[in-house]
Amino acid sequence: MAASRKIPLRKCVVTKEMKPKQQLIRVVRNKEGEVFVDPSGKKNGRGAYISKDPKVIETAQDQDVLSRQLNTKVDHTIYEELKSLAGEQ
C-alpha cells in the first residue's frame, strides 16, 4: 500500500462534523470586512467551512450561522452562491 497522504479535515459550522476539506465550502471574511465564497480554500482571512449540502446551507441561512462565525453580517447572496455550488455535485 502506498503511503497515503493525510487528508485535511475541517469542521462544518452547522453540523459540527469533521469532514475532508473537499466536501466543504469555505466562506471567508477578509480584513476589509468583505465576505465571499472561497472555492479554492486558500484566500486570506477568517474562514468558516460549511458542508456541500443544500439542506445544511438552508439551516445555516435560517439560523444565520455564518454571521456568528465570521462576526459580521453575511448577505443572503452568499447563501445563494453556496447553494449553487452545492447543487453542482
TrEMBL record:
<dbReference type="InterPro" id="IPR035931">
    <property type="entry name" value="YlxR-like_sf"/>
</dbReference>
<dbReference type="Pfam" id="PF04296">
    <property type="entry name" value="YlxR"/>
</dbReference>
<dbReference type="InterPro" id="IPR007393">
    <property type="entry name" value="YlxR_dom"/>
</dbReference>
<protein>
    <recommendedName>
        <fullName>YlxR domain-containing protein</fullName>
    </recommendedName>
</protein>
<feature type="domain" description="YlxR">
    <location>
        <begin position="10"/>
        <end position="83"/>
    </location>
</feature>
<dbReference type="InterPro" id="IPR037465">
    <property type="entry name" value="YlxR"/>
</dbReference>
